């Protein structure tokens, strides 16, 4: 078995005022994974909060990381983490919110464009490649004429919050499946059909 850890990065903004924002769903998934593994986050010299653990005894190793920077500056801490743990981008899984996917749906992919997501864009720029895995958590488009930048920085609605634990749990399952079963099998299991 490959003993190199998987680096799982949950994107979001630091600080309590952002904790419940749609933009922070990646960090919510990270918290769920840490809870399952029974590990706690601590400050790391790479400018991120980091927790290390295994899903099961003897199972794959995971480094769960939340950059301490704002979303659009996620690249530098991720680059430092990749270097610190001597990893290549094929051991990186980035979990982030996605406007172009309906709320409650997931899509998994490796590589490709950033879809206007500044956190993903910055990571690809710093690493020099977009070829890392992403678990894209659907938050849907803003209603009416609300600007996307405002929408992502608002908390989930009361209706969404009822379904959020299920979505976060499913995204955590997807991270584990991606790392243990591979992309194709995980996509078959978790990818939502394209929006009509």
How would you describe this protein?
The protein has a seven-stranded mixed β-sheet with strand order 2-3-4-1-5-7-6, sandwiched between helices. It has one domain (6-190): Rossmann fold, CATH 3.40.50.1470. It has helices spanning 25-37, 75-84, 118-127, 148-152, 158-181, 183-190, and strands at residues 6-10, 42-44, 48-54, 61-67, 92-98, 106-110, 133-138. The chain is of the alpha/beta class. Helix content is 36%, strand content 20%. Helix 1 crosses helix 5 and helix 2 (75-84) crosses helix 3. The protein starts with 5 loop residues before the first strand and ends in a 6-residue tail after the last helix. It is built from six helices and seven strands, in the order E-H-E-E-E-H-E-E-H-E-H-H-H.
List keywords for this structure.
single chain, 196 residues, seven-stranded mixed β-sheet, 36% helix, 6 helices, 7 strands, alpha/beta, Rossmann fold, globular
In total, the number of strands is 7
The secondary-structure class comes to alpha/beta
SSE run: EHEEEHEEHEHHH
What's the pLDDT, averaged over the residues? 94
CATH fold call: Rossmann fold
| Order of adjacent strands in the largest pleated sheet | 2-3-4-1-5-7-6
Q: Given this structure, which CATH class is correct? A: Alpha Beta
Strand content: 15-25%
Spatial separation of the terminal alpha carbons:
41 Å
Total helical segments:
6
Calculate Rg over CA atoms.
Answer: 15 Å
**Domain tally:** 1
Shape: globular
